[in-house]
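Researcher: Quick test of sequence recovery. Tokens follow.
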């Protein structure tokens, strides 16, 4: 008698990460200090998720966090120097994405 064969199919649904981009300031922007910089982001959750947090980063340093839209952060007393700004969006399923980098220059107002 032939043996029984069993086939087990496991399916895993992988949820897409949200999308994030900086809409303002433009890449390559320049300011004179003292500066207050408005960082505006566009964040879109993937289907069936919600955005729970958006972090605003200068390099790897978090300079601000928002947990509700609008996804705009005001960076006060931004220091002189070159800055690499990104935003990082997290959704309620643990999906995380980081925007493209926008490089900025803050120069001393002499």
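Model:
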């Amino acid at each position: 008698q032939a043996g029984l064969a069993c086939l087990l199919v496991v399916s895993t649904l992988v949820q897409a990460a949200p999308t994030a981009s900086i809409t303002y300031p433009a890449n390559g922007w320049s300011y004179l200090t003292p500066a207050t910089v408005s960082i505006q982001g566009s964040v879109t959750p993937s289907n069936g998720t919600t955005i729970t947090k958006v972090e605003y980063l200068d390099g790897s340093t978090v300079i601000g966090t928002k947990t509700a839209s609008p996804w705009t952060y005001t960076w006060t007393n931004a220091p002189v120097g070159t800055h690499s700004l990104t935003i990082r969006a997290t959704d309620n399923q643990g999906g995380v994405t980081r925007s493209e980098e926008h490089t900025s220059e803050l120069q001393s107002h002499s």
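The mean pLDDT is 89.
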